[in-house]
Amino acid sequence: MKDSADSIAFSIASMRELETFSASDSRFASIGASVKILASFVFILCVVSFGVYDLRVLLFFAFPAMLWIAVRPPAKIFFNRLLIVLPFVLFTGISNLIFDNSAVALPFGFEARGGAVSFFTLLCKAVLCVGAALFLVLTTPINAIAGGLRRFKLPCVLVLQTVLTLRYLEVMLDEAGRMHCAYSLRAPNLKGIKFSDWHKIAARLFLRSLDRAENIYSAMLCRGFCARKTMEFYKSKESFAEIAALVCFAFFCFFLRFSDWIF
């Protein structure tokens, strides 16, 4: 059971590590969350719009490289998140390697199998999209992201539901760790949870985490919590310099995307 307990503890630590890092960052924390959200959206939109054989997507690695140097996040944070989407990318890419045998012209007169090129392009897109989303999370606390989403006039209920869902996941993982510890103390000789007990533990976990979440929400209401006022508090106005930088960034992204003379 030690492996299960370690995985639960690792999940909780990973969620808290992202929030701790975003709170400690000072170089990009002052930038408006709405600006960073829109910049990430433009970047991801340009990346995913490339064709399956378009190697110009490699040009977009210049942005995460510069941000990596500026932010300097722990490498394990990026690779742990990349491992989540990597199996799906590998599954799709391997199928391309098997079924796509067409010849594709590469820059400088080279040729390669279409399956290999599409697999490489798909892998690059996954790395870039994960990097863009991770940069946003690492430099912006979740409450600031919620305020940035409200700047785009998203419904308050939807934004609040997203924030509370993230908080609820941590509560549920914490309850899972407590239940796993109690189960291991009562059955120390078992290597894992018996299959016949899974449905009981799952139901109990849901009820306990729901009860604890309701207690937390009641405590928030006792302290004067109001969803609209809270979301309005984290909204921030963008400065002229931030808007100008966003326009330049978007222009450069679209320039790289639609310039055919580069490759």
TrEMBL record:
Chief localization: membrane
PANTHER family registered for this protein in UniProt: SLL0384 PROTEIN (PTHR34857:SF2)
Protein keywords: Cell membrane, Membrane, Transmembrane, Transmembrane helix
InterPro entries: ABC/ECF_trnsptr_transmembrane, ECF_transporter_component
Membrane topology qualifier: Multi-pass membrane protein
Name the record gives this protein: Energy-coupling factor transporter transmembrane protein EcfT
Membrane-crossing segments per the record: 37-70, 82-99, 119-140, 239-258
Originating species: Intestinicryptomonas porci
Keyword Cell membrane included in the entry's annotation: yes
One Pfam family, short name: CbiQ
CDD domains tied to this protein: EcfT
Subcellular locations according to the entry: Membrane
